[in-house]
Amino acid sequence: MLVIEVTNAREVVSQRMGKLGGRLIGKVVDAEAQVEKALIQELETAFREFGIEAKIYSLDGPVMLGRSHLEIPVHVREERQVRLRNDG
Asked: pTM value?
């Protein structure tokens, strides 16, 4: 299992959206959710190309505590299942 914590989501969204976007972060734009959504799309494409089937979750709440503990109040923002063939 992989856990990826994006540590500069606000900066990424600010760069992509400019000064106005920087002011909207936290008010209208959820920077973490936007960056995670883009990463999920890229991961899905890469996984298909490598022949990997996976479940990818975007979770709201978990926090890494050092290198050995994960605090988990889990709220699933998005879930996607990657399949190699189209079943429908």
From this structure: 0.62
